[in-house]
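Late entry, evening session. Most of the bench is empty. Finally got around to the prediction I had been postponing all week. Sequence below, unchanged from the version circulated by S.P.
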Amino acid sequence: MIECVQSILFKTRCVYTRIICMSVKIQNSDIGDLEEIVDLNYNIFSGMYENKPYSLFEYRDRLVDKESVIFIATESDKIIGDSIAYKDGDGLYLWILGVNKEYRSLGIGKQLLQKNKEYAKNNNLALIKVKVFGVSVEMRQLLENNGYKIIKIEKSQKAEKYDVYYFALQIQYE
């Protein structure tokens, strides 16, 4: 009986996952969507870090003189995930990646990473760099599972969850 219930639950989760994934679109965006992106990211990152999440002003200030690369994941025209990157020397710096908690484990973060990789490759960039705090265990796992390597760790004086992990992905060209 337990096996049967587990099987039904697994099948239900798989069907649900397929339905959600079929309706999620990953697309290019721009700073015109920043207000909605900031609201989403505020909900995603609230309480995770020592400081409160960035404000709309801080996003605009960070991106003002940069060639930003923004991708969004939408379902029914609602933004449920995003990534914000910008060119940095010979690479791409992935500044923010977030997915609404209700849509995690559906491959959306992986698709956003893939879009950034495609952008880097199409623009002849050598690597993608990412900075992640220790508290972001899911993000660290996502990066490691997608070929990113830790290149440096800065230990925090306060707590392990504030350690800073620097990742990089070398872009491969044939």
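Two things to note before I forget:
Residues 25-170 form a domain with the Aminopeptidase fold (CATH 3.40.630.30).
The longest helix spans residues 2-23.
Will write this up properly tomorrow.
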